[in-house]
Amino acid sequence: MDLRETGEQPRHPWELARLEFFVAALRRHGLLGRPVSLLDVGSGDAWFSSQVAGLLPAGSHISCLDAGYDEATLQRLQEQVPPMLSLHREPPPGQFDAVVLLDVLEHVADDRGFLQSIVASSLRPGGLAVISVPAWQALFTQHDTFLHHHRRYSPALARQVTKAAGLQLLESGGLFHSLLLPRALGKLREAALGAAEDTTPSIAWNHGPLLTKAVLGALQVDGAVSQLLARTGLSVPGLSWWAVGQKLV
């Protein structure tokens, strides 16, 4: 979760479905069955890494990196996260078996240079990078501005950025296909009526267990479809774009 979206509310079904999708990706690529070192870039409140930590064997370690951490946040989160996690404002030393950048690159003005630096300095040769970004610049709204996004990505642009960092794409594709239409309608409404000031975290969710279960189920099916499409090599648009890339030796 982005630090601008943190709060006490329950986790959004979108975030739960995203966790399940990328845990499956980590498992497919052998990162959950052995002790590994992971670097979670743009880790926010470290919720994602805390969930992954519960699936990793002893001897594993996750370093959570976020430039938005201040001393108070570091102290608060370090008291809450599993012992397997450490929190950092600056890139920790060493190279990792995998780096995870979920909805991070859109926050960085020089996304290519940033990803190249992370891959070169923090990912071991042959290691994996797991990446997601928001898709389609035409869907850029006031909420993107609120979250300090510089851009949204077409699949072609996202592939260019990842390949320029020295990554060979193993899997990639759209994600959250079912959310494209609602986002497009929201964009049309904003264009027609103007953009209201956006100060409400999109991740906030207080809609009860029945609706939560229904929405989560729909998004889980969406994620399963995305995995199937990636395996068949079909590229279908989604509200997000994702990839697993391997650092070229």
SSE pattern: HEHEHEEHEHHEHHE
Through-space gap between termini: 32 Å
Number of strands: 7
CATH architecture: 3-Layer(aba) Sandwich
Q: What is the share of helical residues?
A: 25-40%
- Give the CA-based shape: globular
Strand proportion, as a percent range, falls in 15-25%
SSE-based structural type:
alpha/beta
Strand order in the largest sheet = 3-2-1-4-5-7-6
Query: Can you identify the CATH superfamily?
Result: Vaccinia Virus protein VP39
Q: Quick gist of this model?
A:
The chain is α/β, with parallel strands linked by helices.
Explain this structure to me?
This protein is of the alpha/beta class. The protein has a single domain (about 5-245), classed as Rossmann fold (3-Layer(aba) Sandwich), CATH 3.40.50. It is about 40% helix and about 20% strand. It has helices at about 15-30, 45-55, 70-80, 110-120, 140-145, 155-165, 180-195, 210-230, and strands at about 35-40, 60-65, 85-90, 95-100, 125-135, 165-175, 240-245. Strands 3-2-1-4-5-7-6 form a seven-stranded mixed sheet, with helices on both faces. Strand 1 (about 35-40), helix 2 (about 45-55) and strand 2 (about 60-65) form a beta-alpha-beta unit.
